[in-house]
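Researcher: Predict the fold of Chaperone protein DnaJ.
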Amino acid sequence: MAADYYEMLGVARDASKDEIKRAFRELARRYHPDVNKDSGAEERFKEINRAYEVLSEPEMRARYDRFGEAGVSGAAGASGFQDMGDVGGFADLFETIFSGFGGMGTAAGGGSSTRRRSSQVRGDDLRLDLRLEFREAVFGGEKEIRIPHMENCETCKGSGAKPGTSASTCSTCNGTGQVRRATRTPFGSFAQVATCPNCNGEGRVIEEKCETCNGVGRRQVRKKLKVTIPAGVDNGTRLRVAGEGDAGLRGGPSGDLYVFLNIAEDAEFERDGTDIHSELRVSYLQAILGCHNEVKTVDGPEELAIPPGTQPGTVLRLEGKGVPKLGNSVSRGDHLITVQVEIPTRLEREEREALEKLAYQKGENVGKGREGGLFGGIFRGH
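Model: Structure tokens for Chaperone protein DnaJ follow.
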């Protein structure tokens, strides 16, 4: 079971952003691998970093509260030594740990070695579980769904800035999204690149935010979509709907929507790959003499020939009446019908007399025996 990020930081689920920050700094100072040489300290530090990375960002925290780890997987970087946003980055943490050993250098814009970051971020992929009826899975078709997802704000077109204005280059990092800090310690001088605290790594600053989306550039809406279901899908089939995930940040591409299918059971049919199974009950006379019976298939009623002398449990086949092969709807499996012979528990007098007469003629020992049966006295003289 995945660890709870709130428990990992030792805070309540309704903890404020400042409380989360304080808890993180205290734990990070305790488990930083440059300070704590115990085995497992580095892994613990990575876990703490990941928990703070999610809980310190309001949008990611909201998704985590709603969906758990599945809601933020892929939305943030993998666990490790990440930039630490408004907590001041790795450099501030290093300063806290070694504050008794020397002063800190002054933050400065990144030099020529610092690559300018792209402001665009791809949107998150989304998952939807969709239940289909048995015949919907067999023949496919269109299915209407509704999904909540993030779309670009129509007012600011995803920029986050008030219409008529635009974001400006961050003066602290000169648009790189990073600042470089130098630290002197008894062990030598250290330089560390950290997220710019002024623009939170975006490289730009919005002076006048869009009033519709409060500068985020996106809004959550519930959208209606039509999804094409191919013929022959089965339980666990995954369909990808390109571009229907969350909209990207600052004009970045949208994520994708993944639809996972679950197929309902049917009262008459059972599926095995591309074959369909069902049962047909016939009378003992129909099984003995043979007949033509109407059977149900996914295509509708079909006539099935029951050969004379059909035994209970015999499987008859209707070719090409099964499930289409996924990706090749022309090729279909078969419909396999198991014949169940019904033996009556009670007979009318005339029917019983006819059967006993037949049994007597064939020399079968039925009822109370040949001499004591119903027709024993009648046929004894012939």
